[in-house]
Amino acid sequence: MTDLQKRALFKMVALSAVAAASLVACGKKEEAAPAPAPAASAAAPKAEPLKIAFAYVGPVGDGGWTFAHDNGRKALEKEFGDKIKTSFVESVPESADAERVIRDMVGQGNKLVFGTTFGYMEPMLKVAADNAGVKFEHATGYKQAENMRTYDSRTYEGAYMAGVIAGKMTKSNVLGVVASIPIPEVVRNINSFTLGAQSSNPKVKTKVAWVNEWFNPPKETEAATSLIDGGADVLFQNTDSPAVLKTAESKGKRAFGWDSDMTAYGPKAHLASAVINWGPYYIKATKEALDGSWKGGTAAWWGVKEGAIDLVSIADDVPAETKARIDEVKKGLKDGSFVIWKGPITDNTGKVQIAKDAVADDKFLGGLGFYVKGVEGKIPGK
Known about the structure:
Helix content: 25-40%
Number of helices: 11
CATH superfamily of the largest domain: Response regulator
CATH class of the largest domain: Alpha Beta
Largest sheet: 6 strands, parallel
Distance between the termini: 141 Å
Order of helices and strands: HEHEHEHEEHEHEHEHEEHEEHEEH
């Protein structure tokens, strides 16, 4: 085969290959370009928890006032879970140091701050004035602001019920009260305890020993001992530790727990405990802060009716009829059919303070500054 013939053959083969490729290309179905993958949807950012701080006047292990507040804080955590984050500072003095602690709480990003004692009122007002975006709740006070409100419990209802039992159980007809600070709240409790005792035993009289502190176990022990030495065989307290009950136990007398159930601190001496449940109010306040319905400038005062006050762990040797009377009082306080501060009520100088059948309003009770008939001595500073 000549070179010319070879070149002609190669050309024919090449042309055939091109034609075949063209036929294949023409017969191939055109494929659509793949659609772009959908962009991953951005996850909604998780809401930051509401930061809530508590300032406590005593240690959380005091067994009484602060222990009850901390139980309320724990109830919050159980109710709201990761929607909130709580913290506390214990043993904050009722002094300029309280302002420093509360300012520090705000600086740490807390948007709801609870101050749990009367002496924090002025410091909280100062901090509230400088922090409009923070909500403040002050326990037992009477001053409010646009971003600060007050809350309290009707502890005098528990005091009255304890008095009903004390009047029945005393053998000497002398009752003793270890009192903290001479403010209306404490005077109201001393008087209500005495009124309750007089309802079951008109012969009783009440002696008071002031310690001028909320939590000071050695002073409370000393005061309780002096009352027992003065003839008191049933003790009541408006202080924060179990020292009074422990003293009664050691000396063979009877006493009550206060703010929390103190049975374990003096089981033989213990007659009952007048307790506070802060949980319902703390849950309400936090819910309002979370849903935007919280409003400052208001005051709340909750008692047996709202589930904030109760008398618990009544001793077995308290007579059945006395226990039944306590049940009647609780029922009456709940439905409004029973009123503790109803006249005639006279003070211990013989002056009529509430006329017959008249009922004291909250303003009157909030400024109480006298001892009722049956309480010995004078209120310090009066």
